[in-house]
Amino acid sequence: MSADGKKAASSWVNLAVDYGPLLVFFLTYRQFSPKDAGGVGAIVAVTKGTIAFMVATVIALVVSKWRLGKISPMLWLSSALIIGFGALTVFLGDPEWIWHKPTAVYLMFALVLFAGWMRDKAALKYLLQSAFPGLNDLGWLKLSFNWAIFFLVLAALNEGLIAYLKHQYPDWQVLLKNDRDPITPIWLNAKLFFVTPISFLFTFTQIPMLLRHGLGETAENEVVESPPHD
Question: Is the dihedral of CA 171, 176, 177, 179 positive or negative?
Answer without folding.
Answer: positive
